[in-house]
Amino acid sequence: MSAPREKDLAASLPSGIRCVAVLSGKGGVGKSLVTALLAAAFARSGRAAGILDADITGPSIPRMFGVRRVTAVEEGRMSPARTRELGIRIMSINLLMESEDDPVVWRGPLVSRAVEQFVTDVDWTGTEYLFIDLPPGTSDVPLTVMQRLPLSGLVVVSSPQELVGVIVRKAIKMAEMLQIPVIGLVENMSHLICPHCGKKIDLFGAADAGSGDDSGVPLLARIPLDPALAALCDKGDLESYEDNPFASLVESIARSLDSNGGKDA
Ligand code: ADP
How does residue 209 score in pLDDT terms, banded at 50, 70 and 90? Predict the structure, then answer.
């Protein structure tokens, strides 16, 4: 892999913005959900949050917030859509499609180009914290984002079975090679709260709560498998989820992002 290169896409972003990429080893582990919950927690704390949906071939952010189209173009740049309650700014390929069911059948270079345009052709003015939902794995787009955007941190999402696995270690290693600070791991669907007796059921055995794996990266949160959460995603009403696991972590995450620096800081 090449050495870290100039963060050339930074010039298109507002000054002082903190960019946070969210990565997983494979699809379906809840990476988009974690991105959405992080943005919602930051927005609820009074910080201006945005989401750049870089998962071009599997975009699910607009559906989770019930936002549909963006049409506004000001001075040649598109304005992101805004969520109903918290005003989170969102840009996603789905917001540009006739129907959200239309597939994106593009090859790699075109997909990376679309992500670039979500930085250069979208007006992110006013956004303080931009969360980037990466496609799973360590392919072209994660590499483009990690090399060319001024990232203040990376969050890695995994399911419990995957936590100690090779894929997570690969993602962490890639971040290290590109000198991107890993804020922490999020273990999703780690347990279930019995709706009848309230007892916690560890679906895949109890995990080590101290550290996500042997890399020393801290485990930020463990999110239960919660049918209420899935229902809110399907209804496009994720903003009203009351048990956001990141609500109590916003201050400390923001502190570590700020200390890592962002664009022009
Ligand atoms: P990924 O981005 O990793 O492909 P998503 O975040 O899109 O995965 O999640 C896939 C689906 O699983 C979503 O429809 C979401 O509603 C559901 N889901 C993810 N995590 C949970 C959870 N902790 N509880 C309930 N449903 C979940």
Answer: very low
DSSP string covering 187-250: EES-EEE-TTT--EEETT----SSBSSTT--BEEEEE---HHHHHHHHHT-GGG-TT-TTGGGH
Distance (Å) from CA 101 to ligand 1 centroid: 18
Q: What is the pLDDT of residue 230?
A: 93
- Which atom of ligand 1 is nearest to 228's Cα? 25
The overall longest dimension of the chain from CA atoms, in Å, is: 57
Q: Give the domain ranges of the chain.
A: 23-259
Please tell me whether the overall predicted TM-score, pTM, comes out greater than 0.85 for this model.
Answer: yes
- Domain 23-259 classified CATH 3.40.640.10? no
Res 132: pLDDT:
97
C-beta of 232 in contact with ligand 1 (< 6 A):
no
